[in-house]
Hints:
Mean pLDDT of chain B: 94
Shape of chain A: globular
Structural class of chain A: mainly beta
Oligomer: heterodimer
Number of strands of chain A: 12
Largest sheet of chain A: 6 strands, mixed
Low-confidence stretches of chain B: none
Amino acid sequence: AQTVTQSQPEMSVQEAETVTLSCTYDTSENNYYLFWYKQPPSRQMILVIRQEAYKQQNATENRFSVNFQKAAKSFSLKISDSQLGDTAMYFCAERIQGAQKLVFGQGTRLTINP
Amino acid sequence: DAGVIQSPRHEVTEMGQEVTLRCKPISGHDYLFWYRQTMMRGLELLIYFNNNVPIDDSGMPEDRFSAKMPNASFSTLKIQPSEPRDSAVYFCASSTRIYGYTFGSGTRLTVV
């Protein structure tokens, strides 16, 4: 069974700092996709970044990047130059290729302080 | 594209009443998903459809819950009768086969 674990329920940093959110997953599959979603207070779920497991290169989207360690089944999100608008819940999720179910972690509540 | 559209945004109902949540997926997306979010259980997949056909409803909690997708542009999630423990945010999402989902803005359901 797929499981996704986010070990940090809450994190707080100062504006402009860099922050890393942790995520580990457990799957026996070789082909899968990993995602980070952001949920601000508006509750909208927003896709932040996506990583295909077969790609060795870590995905990057502007200030957001991931550290994908396939052997360790680790998928952390780094936010550089954090901004007040980054304050939100962040969810890590996994989707096995060929299956459509997206399994989410429990989330990390990130607060960016001015 | 207007994205995934859910209605209503908020719903307050009395225990025992029927509740219907609605979703319009993104045009061209052939998968549609219903998720429920609570503090205790996080995000749970209730059911998903492929080309309007229900594929996996193992997450539907009880027979009180039912979902339909009569066509590619519309789906409903119905709870009858509703109970206070059904109070949650219900999300609809759509996707193509490979990539991540696009979520709607959710319906916050409160059953009193």
